[in-house]
Amino acid sequence: MVQLLGKEQRQHGPLIALRITPGSGWWELDDRARAVAGALQSRPTDKRGLWLGLQRHTVTRRDYLDGIVEQLQQAGALDRLEVVEDALGEYVANGELIAAALMAGYPMRYDDGPNATFGMSRRDVERVRKMRAAA
Question: Which domain of life does this protein belong to (predicted)?
Fold first, then answer.
C-alpha cells in the first residue's frame, strides 16, 4: 500500500484522504464528490480521476477538496465530510496513518512489509501530544 500511495502521489501530486459519512442520500453526495474528481463510474476506467478506496476513506487529489466542499455545501451536507486530519484522537489504522504522513509530505523510507519509516521530527510529535493532552 505504501508503494501504491507513493506512486499515486508522484503521478497526481498532493493527496488527501476523506470520507462522506454514511446516511440518507449518501450515494448522491458521493457522486457529487466523484464528479469534482472526474471519477464518476459512468466514465471509462482510463478516463476517471483518482478516487482510491483506502479502508474507511477515499484518497483523491488535494486540489479537489475545495470543489468537493462546495458541492457538499450546495447539498446542505458539509457536516457529512470527514478529512483524515479531523480524526486525531481516535483510532487510526496503520494504512490511514501512512497515507496521512505521505499527504503531509514527510519523507519516507520503505524497507519491506506493511510498515514504513517516516522522517518526523521530535518537535512535530511533541506538538501533537500536547494538542491531544489539552483537548
Answer: Bacteria
pTM of the model: 0.62
Q: What is the pLDDT of residue 127?
A: 76
Q: Please state, in angstroms and rounded to a whole number, the distance separating the CA atoms of residues 74 and 58.
A: 21
Spatial distance between the Cα atoms of 100 and 67, rounded to a whole number of angstroms: 20
Is the confidence at residue 49, as pLDDT, over 60? yes
The grid cell for 4 is 501504491
Residue 66: closest CA among 84, 78, 56: 78
Alpha-carbon distance of 22 to 83, in angstroms, equals 14
End-to-end CA distance of the chain: 32
Per-domain boundaries in the chain: 2-134
Rounded Cα–Cα distance for residues 59 and 40 (Å): 14
